[in-house]
Design goal:
The structure holds two protein chains of two kinds.
Chain A lengths: L2 H25 L2 H17 L1 H6 L4 H25 L13 H15 L3 H11 L5 H8 L3 H18 L4 H8 L1
Helix pairs in contact in A: 1-2, 1-4, 1-6, 2-4, 6-8, 7-8
Chain B lengths: L2 H12 L10 H35 L48 E2 L15 E6 L4 E7 L4 E5 L5 E5 L6 E5 L5 E4 L5 E6 L5 E6 L9 E5 L5 E4 L3 E5 L5 E6 L4 E6 L6 E5 L9 E4 L5 E7 L5 E7 L7 E5 L2 E9 L3 E8 L9 E9 L2 E2 L3 E5 L16 E2 L21 H27 L1
Antiparallel strand pairs in B: 1-25, 2-3, 4-5, 5-6, 6-7, 8-9, 9-10, 10-11, 12-13, 13-14, 14-15, 16-17, 17-18, 18-19, 20-21, 21-22, 22-23, 22-24
Classes of the chains: A mainly alpha, B alpha+beta.
């Protein structure tokens, strides 16, 4: 096995769970999440030597992940219109209240556009600043700000039960 | 501050269902990289092929009727090796007035060396043009060239085209071509001294069109005659030397005196319409013909008395062709009968003529392996070219740039764009499925 392939496989072995979680948050669908991770990692593998030579490859991988999510969003929505497939139900042992909240969050996220969803995940899951999120998505800070505002407004509109969360989050 | 939403998202992430990657991303990525590299190489090859095609087919140089800029002769390439001034040199021709030879004269050449530019290697006729003292090809001529002859001022070249195709005149400075439909079977033509008309001999089998005639190249008017093959005009244009095929003799006629032959000059032996020239003062004519033993004979006649004061013959010459009469004598092109002169199969000699008769021929050009002179080698024969071109910078002109025509390339670009769009659309459809 070549060094490049070895380092790639080491990286994937170490960071794949985190990438899966981010993909899951972005897509809300296990098949789409797998496809997203798969595509992002394949694209990174194409130029792995250069990516690895520049230092930590994870920011680049995540950047690819988010770009793929946004650019593939329209196609995905088109397919979903043609024939929606069932959502995977997450496993785990939660309390009823937690499950209810997560379902509400998930359903609300599904109403967002890919870019709004990406911004939300970047800002509130990966805890990036507006400028960092803008850099990750290759957009301006203003775009991140407006997309965040729009995403939160939409969440409030489609899921009033999350209002308390939104209010707190606003601060 | 953002804890509630963050917590909700983290909870959602922590409850991410288990899933495995169904394909190896490394193998998939490397396969895609190989495919992309192959595509780049193929696209580069196709692009190079397209560019090469455009260059070779549409954008390259070509023979053209478009005017070409004159080619300045290289310095130091002129050398006056023909110390003669021929009788029909226009004294005031500006283009060639500074030539060491004093200007152009009717001269006969047929060049097989492509550098001269009369014929390319694949025997496509190319008109040699003169503009500023140099010789250059100005355009190619499709089909055959019959009896090409350059006008006295060196600016136009006339020739028959082929049976039934008429006569064409090319301006050797600009490449402009004018084709005349009549006579349809021109085989031999000479210019009048003023360069406005052509006396044209017609092939004998097509006598219904007359034996010869005069074509006005300005108006296209064709005046058929029933004389004989026109051979030469006197320098003042008042007299004309003809070959009477019926009676097998030479005729000197007054141009304006109808069909009355002023003098009939009998020449012995095997007659054949070859060539004849007037002396610079117009009082003598020299005619060349072939003797029964195939050797060359050149007879001089007094145009007023018909007397023949001198006969020059050469037993090793054949196919004599008189190409001019200058101050030092008659210029004759010939071929050697045998190999007595190794490496000298043909040539041009000046044969001095004076009160003492013919002098010793002085060879000026010749040999089957001609020594390169100035910038080119050449074989004199049939095409009339000003004599001064011999020492000018003889070379074929570069092919003029063809005007670029976007039309076919626009179509190709539109087709290419359509192909790209279709391929892209198919790719999108495939990815959607």
């Amino acid at each position: 096995m070549h060094d490049a392939e070895q380092t790639f496989r080491c990286f994937v072995g170490a960071r794949l769970p985190a990438l899966k979680r981010a993909a899951w948050l972005l897509t809300g669908d296990v098949h789409l999440a797998e496809d997203l991770v798969q595509t992002a990692l394949a694209k990174v593998a194409m130029r792995w030597e250069r990516v690895a030579a520049n230092g930590d490859p994870e920011p680049y991988v995540r950047k690819i992940l988010y770009h793929e999510h946004v650019s593939a969003g329209r196609k995905r929505r088109f397919i979903e219109v043609l024939g929606s497939h069932g959502r995977e139900q997450p496993s785990g042992t939660d309390t009823t209240a937690d499950v209810s909240l997560r379902l509400t969050v998930r359903q609300a996220l599904e109403r967002l556009t890919p870019k709004q969803r990406a911004v939300l995940v970047l800002r509130y899951y990966e805890d990036l600043s507006e400028s960092q999120a803008a850099e990750r998505l290759d957009v301006s800070v203003g775009t991140v700000r407006s997309q965040t505002r729009a995403a939160l407004a939409r969440l409030r509109a489609v899921a009033p039960e999350l209002a308390s969360v939104m209010e707190v989050t606003r601060d | 501050m953002t804890e509630p939403l963050q917590t909700a998202l983290h909870d959602e992430a922590d409850n991410c269902p288990e899933f495995e990657l169904t394909a190896d991303p490394w193998a998939r990525g490397r396969r895609a990289r190989r495919t992309r590299r192959i595509a780049v190489v193929v696209a580069g090859g196709v692009a190079a092929l397209a560019v090469a095609t455009m260059v070779s087919v549409g954008v390259g140089q070509q023979w053209s009727v478009d005017p070409v800029s004159p080619v300045e002769p290289a310095p130091g390439l002129r050398e006056p090796t023909i110390p003669d001034r021929l009788y029909n040199v226009p004294p005031n021709m500006t283009d060639l007035a500074d030539s060491p030879l004093g200007g152009p004269a009717s001269f006969a050449y047929e060049a097989y060396d492509v550098r001269v530019g009369l014929f390319t290697e694949d025997v496509v006729a190319v008109v040699v043009g003169a503009h500023t003292g140099d010789v250059r090809a100005v355009r190619s001529l499709a089909g055959s060239i019959r009896g090409p002859v350059l006008s006295p001022d060196g600016t136009k070249l006339a020739s028959g085209i082929g049976f039934g195709e008429g006569v064409r005149v090319v301006d050797v400075r600009t490449g402009e071509l004018v084709t005349f439909g009549r006579p349809s079977v021109a085989v031999h033509q000479i210019w009048t001294p003023d360069g406005t008309r052509l006396a044209i001999g017609i092939d004998g089998e097509y006598g219904s069109q007359g034996r010869d005639g005069v074509l006005d190249i300005g108006t296209g008017e064709w005046q058929p005659r029933r004389y004989a093959a026109p051979i030469a005009f006197s320098p003042d244009g008042q007299r004309e030397l003809r070959w009477d095929e019926d009676d097998q003799h030479w005729v000197v006629a007054e141009v304006d005196a109808g069909e009355v032959a002023a003098l009939s000059l009998s020449a012995s032996a095997q007659h054949e319409v070859r060539s004849g020239v007037f002396s610079p003062d117009g009082t003598m004519v020299a005619v060349a013909y072939r003797e029964a033993d195939e050797s060359a004979a050149i007879a001089v006649f007094d145009v007023d008395t018909g007397e023949s004061p001198g006969l020059f013959s050469h037993d090793r010459w054949s196919e004599p062709l008189l190409v001019g009469w200058g101050e030092r004598g008659v210029l004759v092109r010939y071929q050697y009968i045998d190999a007595a002169y190794p490496g000298s199969d043909d040539g041009i000699d000046v044969i001095p003529w004076g009160s003492d008769g013919w002098g010793h021929p002085d060879r000026i050009v010749g040999g089957s392996n001609p020594t390169p002179r100035t910038s080119g080698t050449y074989f004199p024969m049939h095409v009339s070219i000003p004599a001064s071109f011999l020492d000018a910078d003889i070379r074929p002109a570069g092919k003029p740039d063809a005007p670029f025509d976007w039309f076919p390339w626009l179509i190709m670009l539109v087709i290419a764009a359509a192909v790209v769009l279709v391929v892209k659309a198919l790719d999108v459809v495939r990815s959607l499925r």
